[in-house]
Amino acid sequence: MGIGLTHYLVLSAILFGLGLFAIITRKNAVLVLIGVELVLNSANINFVAFSKFNKLNIDGHIAALFVIMLAAIEVAVALAIVLNIYQNYKHINVDEVDTLKE
Amino acid sequence: MLEILGFVEDIQKSLFLFLPEVFLVVSLILAILSDLFFKRLKFFNAYVALVGFFAAGISLFYIPKDQVGFLNSFVVDNFSIFIKLIILLTNVIIILMSFNSKELTHNKLSLGEFYTFLIGMTFGMFLVTGSLNLILIYLAVETMSISSYILAGYTKEIKRSSEASLKYVIFGAVSSGLMIYGISLLFGLTGSLNIVEINKILQTSPIPSLAFFISIILILMGFAYKISAVPFHFWTPDVYEGAPITITAYLSVASKVAGFAVLIRFVRSTLVAETSAQQEIWTLISSIDWTFVISILSFLSMTVGNIIALWQNNLKRLLAYSSIAHAGYILMGVAVMNQTGVASVLIYSFIYMIMNLGAFICAMLIANEINSEDINDIEGLGYRAPVLSAIFSIFLFSLIGLPPTAGFIAKFYVFSAVIDAGLIWLAVAGVVNSVISLYYYVKIMRNMFIRGIEVEKEPITFPALNLVVIFLLSIFTLVFGIYFSPIINWANFSANIFVK
Q1: Which residue ranges make up each domain of chain B?
Q2: What's the confidence (pLDDT) of residue A10?
Q3: What is the pTM of this model?
Q4: How confident is the model at residue A1 (pLDDT cuts 50, 70, 90)?
Q5: What pLDDT, on a 0 to 100 scale, did the predictor assign at position B381?
Q6: What is the extent of the structural domain holding A15?
Q7: B207/A contact by beta carbon, under 8 A
Q8: Is B75 helix (H, G, I), strand (E, B) or coil?
């Protein structure tokens, strides 16, 4: 039995679930961002797998490239913001950054 | 070879459609350069931005309409032009507002970056109103989001501002991740990224409805986050309270309106059968009742926004919850899913821009002078600054939706569109919510005029420029409450979304 589309979709679904799990449970801002990366990469796997197995077109590959690019931009901005949080609070624990009242 | 010539021709034709965006990009580059050379001039980039916005605004009237460009991924129609004009007007008012903002101007040599990111965000919002390709939608939403993350934390030495931008970037990154996962599923189901083509494929071939439902819900989550609809609103109060007040006002109007534009275009182009007539209720393709889904979002946003606002004491946080509630009212017009509904959304967006920006400018002027955003600290303000308090009250009356003001007209058209479509329960919920909102808006007025009279305090004076701006906005609020046919006609003319 070769590797089919289903395998890729299951892999991406697992990655998506792990990413969401990391986002919800982690307290360190950098680890939350890594969770976001997992979610974005699961979408990438979907794009490339669909493009490969449905003999469609190159749209999926191009979409994956765009997502990689935007993930890089987003992480650059997010890390700058996390650095700024560190300068103001001396930690990057998302749960303890709560001067604004609930 | 012929194919390449075709592409070149398409791009040449498309550049004319893209003229306003070209002006924005040119002014963005000029702003970056002038930030290098004129660091000493505090507000130089504001004028660069104003010129850019003016050029973009003029060119909006001269570009060809109802045409698609860039390989069917970008469209210009009356709907997108209406939204773009609202965004440009918001930008101009925000720039005028920023001249007198104490938070922004103190401690800063130059505000160059502020205006640069403002232009960048405007470019993203312009793209988002016209995109027909899911990847372009994702790219445009990210362009506006990333600029707004930076702007929310622009006063980076203030603790709560950096906290606001952290919360914004984390929630934003998660919701855009969910959205792109939804897009990838939709791509797998239909084999296309162009929403018009997806629509055709959905009409001809059967697709598994559970997977389709999940993919559309994930995409709608990305949009709902932008318009801060409940249950995707958790970032809104914190970000609105922590960000500089100019940016709070900007996020609550411009980025929300852009979010509604992309939501409406996505729903109209993807989920609706092409055969359905414009005036009638749009026929949905699949068996899933999207009207119900959006009605639920709208109901939750109104109710949760209004009820939590009752307990708020911070002026910015109160206006944040009020903006969630207003997103709920606007969503009622989206849930109707016909041309009347779209027209009512446009009317509401335009009037919401005027009254909400007015209220935020008043809040900023008050916070500048008394160094507090607590609504208990504005006691007796009606006697220290009578003109400003009176104008603030006009905006608050309009936000409630009381008759002589424009807010009444906006609510009237949304409610009548909802009743026409037979969603009586939603209209009743909207009216009940307007009554609830009376309490917290009147609480502000009570504190200004009735409380704290005993204590004699110095009268306060305000900068002339912003007084003129809020005076004009309040005049518009009153005039459009009585003479409203121009807006109604213009919105009806613009409500026709171009579908190829």
Answers
A1: 1-282, 289-500
A2: 94
A3: 0.94
A4: low
A5: 85
A6: 5-90
A7: no
A8: strand
Given a contact cutoff of 8 angstroms between Cβ atoms, the answer to whether B305 and B211 are in contact is no
Q: Can you tell me the distance from the alpha carbon of B142 to that of A68, in angstroms, rounded to the nearest whole number?
A: 13
Phi and psi, residue B76, nearest 5°: -120, 120
CB contacts of B177 in chain A (<8 Å) are: 19, 36, 39-40, 43
Place of tokens 């987003």: A74
**Domain count along chain A:** 1
DSSP B241-263: HHS-HHHHHHIIIIIHHHHHHHH
CB-nearest partner of A77 from B135, B150, B183? B150
Complex prediction ipTM: 0.96
Cβ–Cβ contacts within 10 Å for residue B149, how many? 24
B75-125 tens-digit pLDDT:
999 999 999 999 999 999 999 999 988 888 877 777 888 999 999 999 999
Q: Which residues pair with B160 in a beta bridge?
A: none
Q: Is residue A101 assigned to a domain?
A: no
What is the secondary structure of B143-184 as a DSSP string? HHHHHHHHHHT-STTSHHHHHHHHHHHHHHHHHHHHHHHHHH
CA-nearest residue of chain B to A74?
A: B146
**B453: helix, strand or coil:** coil
Instruction: Give 10-residue mean pLDDT values along chain B (500 residues).
Output: 82 89 95 88 90 95 89 90 95 93 79 92 94 94 94 90 93 94 93 89 85 93 92 92 93 94 92 65 75 93 94 92 95 90 94 95 91 86 88 94 91 94 92 94 90 75 90 94 92 84
CB contact under 8 A, A77 and B177: no
Answer whether A43 sits within 8 Å of B150, measured CB to CB.
Answer: no
Cβ separation of B162 and A84 shorter than 8 Å? Answer: yes
pLDDT at A65 over 90: yes
Count the residues in chain B.
500
**Residue B163 and residue B235 in contact, taking contact as beta carbons nearer than 8 Å:** no
Q: Do A29 and B170 touch (CB under 8 A)?
A: yes
Would residue A23 count as lying in a domain? yes
CB contact under 8 A, A39 and B164: no
CA distances for B390 relative to B364, B387, B446, B449, angstroms: 15, 5, 12, 9
Give whole-number Cα distances, B176 to B225, B227, B375, in Å: 9, 13, 35
Does residue A98 sit within a domain?
Answer: no
